[in-house]
Amino acid sequence: MSKRIWTMTLGGALMSSGAVLALSRIRTGSYGPGVNCTAHWLHGKQAAKVKQLDFRHSLPGIATNAAAVFFWSWFYDKALGKNPTIIRAVTVTVLLGPVSCLIDYKATPKRFTPGWELVFSRADMATIYLSMVIGMALGPGLIRTKTRACL
């Protein structure tokens, strides 16, 4: 695996997890439900009702999100190519959020979706996907590097 995929994954996982934690705290008063709901594939819908962060629900939730971001990082890396032009980088980056959301929620069996709909509104989910995309783009310095190249 390339270093770029790993940095995209790290950036995307950190940003999306940060958004999940912050939105969970705002919406439910606790950090747990937003992270824990992603473990619904393992513990069922009741995972979203667990208020506290714990090893049983939170660790699988965080790991599942990181694995999903790794999956999307691989596709993002392939879509960008080795030396993307600014137009290609912007186009692929703009499409990444909507495409990943569409596939996650329309083409994936319900049990293996992110589960965020158990806790969050559609607007919140869009914010989480946006944060993932920003983190993935910033992770390897793609935005910074391409911006400097154009100046």
TrEMBL record:
Name by which UniProt lists this protein: Integral membrane protein
Regions that span the bilayer: 58-75, 87-105
Origin organism lineage: Bacteria, Pseudomonadati, Pseudomonadota, Alphaproteobacteria, Acetobacterales
Keyword terms, alphabetized: Membrane, Signal, Transmembrane, Transmembrane helix
Keyword Signal: yes
Signal peptide as annotated in the record: 1-22
Domain of life: Bacteria
